[in-house]
Write a structure and sequence with these properties.
heterodimer; A: 406 residues; alpha/beta; Peroxisomal Thiolase, Chain A, domain 1; twelve-stranded mixed sheet; three-stranded mixed sheet; 14 helices; globular; B: 82 residues; mainly alpha; 59% helix
Amino acid sequence: MRPDLVITGLGVIASIGQGKTAFARALLNGESAFAVMQRPGRQRESAYLGAEIGEFTFAPSLGPQVRRAGSLSAHAALVVLQEAWDEARLFEVEPHRIGLVIGGSNLQQRELVQTHETYRDRTEFLRPTYGLSFMDSDLCGFCTAQFGIRGLAFTVGGASASGQLAIIQAALAVLTNQVDVCVALGALTDLSYWECQGLRALGAMGSDRFATEPARACRPFDRDHDGFIFGESCGAVVIESPQSSERRRLEPYAKLRGWGLALDGNRNPDPSLDGEIRAIRGALAAAEWPVETIDYVNPHGTGSVIGDETEISALRACGLNSAYLNATKSIIGHGLSAAGAVEVIATLLQMKRGSLHPTLNLLHPIDPALNWVRDTSIERQIERALTLSIGFGGINTALCLERYSA
Amino acid sequence: MNRTEVLTLIARYTREVIPGLDAHSFTGSDKLVDLGANSVDRAEIAMLVQESLGLVVPRVELFGPKNIGELADLFLKKLDAA
C-alpha cells in the first residue's frame, strides 16, 4: 500500500541550536558543540564526550509551573512540540482528532539517578511527583495537558530507531483514521553516567582514540571512527493526510511515501546486513520508487566501526551507489531515541533549502567512491530522500520522503 | 519553631510549587486549592515542608487540615510530640 501522507510541521532542538532556523544554519555551516559533558549526573570519575543543549527558550505559553515540574526530556518535548504545533496550526484542529506518538524508552535516566542519590538515605521524603516522573509516558502527560491533545498518545520503544518508529506509528494512526493529525516525537534520551558507562563497556560509545579531542571524536564513516558520540536532541514531526493539510491551507514540507521495518531476531547491538537491506527494499517497494530515483540518503551512520561498514554494504547491495550521502550525527552526535525523528527533520530542512550539509571529520571515508558531502555544504535540489535508523535488538527502519509539490 | 515560622515555610514551598504567588500575602485562612494547587501539588508542598522540618506525617493525617493555618498547627503538634 502506498501511503498518501504529508508532513506539515517540524520542531527541533539540539546542541547546535533550538528551532529550525538555528538548527539548519548550524548544520549547513557544520558547527558542532562536542565537549566533555558537564550536565550534573553525566560523569563520575569519567570524561565522557558528548554534545549538550544550552539554555532553553520557552514560549510564554510554557509557563513557570511546567518549567519547574518538567525534566530535561519534558522541556525538550514541550519546546519542539510548541514549534511544530504553531507551524502546522494544530490549534485549528479538533483536539479529539489529534494524536501524539513519543519515540523512546527509559528516557529520563539521569533525572532518576539524581533523585535516587538525593533521597537514598531518606526515602520517606521522596517527592510525590516521582510516582509520575519515573514513567516515560509522563511526557505524554505533560504534552497532552499543555496542548489539549485528546485523540491518542503513547510511547513506542525501538532503541535508536525509536524516532522513526514513532513516525511509522503516527503515520499508521492517520492512515487507520484514528486521528486526522498525529505528531511523532523523538524524545530526548537523558543519559546518566551509568548508561554512558554501559554503552562504553559494550564498545558502542566512543571515543578512546580522540578522548582528549572532543571536536574530532565523532566521525561516522571515517577510517578512524571508534564508536558513537552522544548528543542531546529532540524533534517533532506533524503527519496528516493531504486533505487534512488542505483544510488549513498549509504547504507541506514533503510526502511520506513509504517505509520499511525489518527485525533481525537478534537481542544484541550488532547490525545485520540482511535486516538493513530488507528495511531499505521494503521502503522502496512501498513507495514504488526505482532505486536510481533516490537523490539523497540520510544514513544512520553513528561512527560505530561495524555499524558504519554494514550500512555501507547495505546501501551498495541495494544499488544506492550514486545518491548523495552525509552524516547528521557527525554534527549533532547520536540522540539515541531522538535520532530518527531529528534526522528526518534534518533531511526535510535540507530539502527545503536545496542544500546538503557537510560531514564533519570525514577525512578518509571507509568507502571513498560513494557520493559524500564532505567538507562544506553543497547546493543541490533533492526530490527523493531515504532516511535510515538502526537500533539495538535488531531493529531496522527506512523512510521515503518526497519533496512536496501540489 | 513557632506557628509563624511554620506558616512562612509553607508559604515558601507553595510559592516554589505554584509560580505566580510572589505578590500574594499568605494568611492562615488560605486554602491551597484556592491558590491553584492540585492534589499532586498539595502532596509536593506538604512533603517539601516535612523534608525541611525533618518530620514525617502519615498521608492520611494530611487530609485533615482545611487551610494552611490548620496545616501549620498539625506540623507544630507533630514537632512537639517528636
